[in-house]
Amino acid sequence: MLFIVNWSAQPEVERQAAERFIQTRGAPPDGIELLGRWHAIGSIWGVAVCECEDIEPLARWAHEWADLFMFDIKPAMTDEQVGKMLVEFAERQ
Q1: Of the four listed, 26, 28, 45, 91, which is most buried by Cβ atoms within 10 Å?
Q2: At a CB cut-off of 8 Å and minimum separation 6, what does 9 contact?
Q3: Closest to 7 (Cα-Cα) out of 17, 22, 19, 20
Q4: Which Pfam families does its entry note (predicted)?
């Protein structure tokens, strides 16, 4: 499954977050493929797209950073998946 992960934090944790990121490289745990990650300029906000078969590794990863960040994690679909769903829906109408 694909997931879109947004995170944000308050400015007072920026140094701690940077140090932890440098130490860990922000690497995901086993079971998660990080497809891409982007960081906003001028704020502590970002977005990542991850793929995993099970939500548990993603929940664990978010929990490891939960002392610094607030997370919003949503399941996602590709254009192809949404297109197929829309065609099937239209055929039933």
Answers
A1: 28
A2: 17, 44, 45, 68, 69, 70
A3: 17
A4: DUF3303
Nearest in space to 7 (alpha carbons), one of 38, 53, 41, 35: 38
* Cα angle: 63, vertex 81, 7; to 5 degrees: 25
pLDDT in tens, the chain (93 residues): 999 999 999 989 999 999 999 999 999 999 999 999 999 998 899 999 999 999 999 999 999 999 999 999 999 999 999 999 999 999 998
Instruction: Determine how many CB atoms are found less than 10 A away from the CB of residue 50.
Output: 22
CB 58 within 8 A of CB 74: no
pTM: 0.87
Residues ≥6 apart with Cβ < 8 Å to 78:
2
Nearest to 75 by CA among 45, 49, 57: 49
